[in-house]
Design brief:
The protein has about 400 residues and is α+β, with helices and mostly antiparallel strands. The protein is built from 12 helices and 17 strands. The chain binds acetoacetyl-coenzyme A. It is an enzyme of class 2 (transferase).
Length: about 400
């Protein structure tokens, strides 16, 4: 039985900052941000969006009444949690109108958690093929203003519907995993921004990729040449390119050119959003599927998921005949319609997120065009609004 990704859809903010403008404000060479790091625009998440609203805005438009009735598992992967106890998935299930018989949980292991969610969802659907599972990776990447990590911020949510006979990608049942205690990136409960050893984290990422890639090929006896394209978690798009370059000597020159050409399509949309932690690999997958004219049904794609701390996984999926039908076809136009804001406006949004205090607070939600918005906090409870309710 085939099980995998039936539909996938992305949501982020309606605003972005241009990386050349940000580089100038930080007295950095624009080419460092656009070429050295590989980002051209960065999503500016307003205080009226958090992981709950991003997740609901990503998923709601792609779910039909039949999907809603069949979903009995919702997993939100995130490292931008809003509560130490209650799962963000409960709020998301409520906003989406999912059944109260749906199992709803939040998962955490840095940028890797959505992949763990997909693997659990896949196992669940294999046991219950008439059911569907919704997996959402939702995050806001925050390192701080004027930090080396700043040009690798961003945010958004990727929603994926996992089902039997999927329209987009049939997933392999085998995968290779590596999990070890590494202090490359973490965020203690008292911090709103990540602590990171940037260069070390980039090196660990490559080590993990090489390890799980080889392990997968050996374990499944798959020749590297069988993989049409490799898709990466992209904390910044140059990171994936560095990892890809590290395994190019394993294939012929023709295949090297093919992999590099596919990679350029797979980073197109990530270049315009920035890091979205858990959702990043899957935005890259969507970018590849939406923009690459050289893909064919039956192509086998390799997926590398990495979460600092650290956990990595490599698995594969086979492109299905009607894969375009399950894609978020309007995404390039939505990104194009976003509003460009200046660095001062971006900094105000960055500093204006709801404070982690008990006081009542309000956001400027009226200027946010999305269906689901965070209007503030009252009596220590987050207030969400569905404009269509
Ligand atoms: N023109 C072109 N390129 C230039 C340039 C110029 N004028 N100036 C510099 N560059 C290049 C540099 O040569 C370098 O390229 P290479 O890495 O290929 O050598 C690149 O631009 C970046 O320059 P620096 O190394 O000097 O940049 P930096 O020290 O300011 O920081 C960073 C870069 C370490 C990635 C930092 O942004 C950071 O800490 N980011 C957050 C951590 C991160 O994303 N880690 C990734 C792995 S962890 C993970 O994947 C999980 C997750 O999501 C966080």
């Amino acid at each position: 039985m085939k099980v995998g990704i039936d539909k996938l859809r992305f949501a982020s903010a309606h605003q972005y900052v241009d990386m050349v403008e940000l580089a100038r404000a930080r007295h950095a060479a624009p080419d460092k941000y656009t070429i050295g790091i590989g980002q051209t625009q960065m999503a500016v998440i307003p205080p009226s969006q958090d992981i709950v609203t991003l997740a609901a805005n990503a998923a709601a438009p792609m779910l039909t009444a039949t999907d809603l009735a069949a979903i009995d598992l919702l997993i939100v992967g995130t490292e931008s949690g809003i509560d130490n106890s209650k799962a963000s998935a409960i709020y998301v299930a409520h906003l989406l109108g999912l059944s109260s018989r749906c199992r709803t949980i939040e998962m955490k292991e840095a940028c890797y958690a959505a992949t763990a969610g997909i693997q659990l969802a896949q196992a669940h659907v294999r046991m219950h093929p008439d059911k569907k599972a919704l997996v959402i990776g939702a995050d806001i990447a925050r390192y701080g203003l004027n930090t080396p990590g700043e040009p690798t911020q961003g945010g958004g949510a990727m929603a994926m519907l996992i089902s039997a006979d999927p329209q987009v990608l049939a997933l392999s049942t085998e995968s290779a995993v590596l999990s070890q205690d590494v202090m490359d990136f973490w965020r203690p409960l008292y911090h709103t921004t990540a602590l990171v050893d940037g260069k070390y984290s980039s090196n660990i990422y490559i080590d993990y990729f090489q390890d799980v890639f080889q392990e997968y090929l050996i374990k499944t006896q798959t020749p590297a040449a069988d993989l049409a394209a490799l898709v990466f978690h992209l904390p910044y798009t140059k990171m994936g390119l560095k990892a890809l370059r590290s395994v190019l000597p394993q294939v012929t020159e023709t295949q090297q050119r093919d992999w590099l050409r596919h990679f350029e399509y797979s980073r197109k949309l990530n270049r315009r959003v920035g890091n979205l932690y858990t959702g990043s690999l899957y935005l890259s997958l969507l970018s590849l599927l939406l923009t690459d004219p050289n893909l064919r049904p039956g192509d086998q794609l390799g997926l590398f998921s990495y979460g600092s701390g650290a956990e990595g996984e490599f698995y594969t999926g086979t492109l299905q005949p009607d894969y375009q039908r399950g894609l978020d076809l309007g995404l390039p136009q939505r990104l194009q319609r976003r509003q460009r804001v200046d660095v001062t406006t971006y900094e105000r949004a960055f500093n204006g997120q709801l404070a982690w205090v008990a006081d009542d607070q309000q956001t400027d939600w009226q200027s946010d065009p999305h269906r689901f918005v965070l209007t503030g906090q009252q009596n220590e409870q987050r207030q969400y609004l569905d404009r269509q309710a």
